[in-house]
Input
Amino acid sequence: MLRTNSKKVIEKVRKYIIDGVDHEYFELEADPDFNTACKLILTACENEKRYSRSRSGFETFKDWAQGLPSAFNTMYYYNVSAVDMLGAWLEETESEKAKYSECEAEEMITKLIYRELTKGAAKA
Output
């Protein structure tokens, strides 16, 4: 099992972010670099949740992600097993994956994504 702050996990999360950018939404012809992708995604979140009453940036992002935004792939909330996805990122065994419920795995995935988005956007 890998730690959530290991280089390997961070690389997997960053790849998910790059792969999750919706090219049509942003009118992109090619994949953006990581920092630009982060800035685009967080800007889309801010624009779409502008009048949100969420308490924090993470809570706003989580609320946006649960709404299946068109700008970024957050299907782990609905169409795939978040436990399996998180388990793959952390290279967990079946018994290690069993400690998470789907809701807990969704929360952890969202936290990992948000952490990398904010770090990347700050460098854009």
About this structure: Helices lie at 7-20, 23-26, 34-48, 57-66, 82-90, 94-97, 102-123. The chain has one domain: 7-123. The chain is about 65% helix and 0% strand.
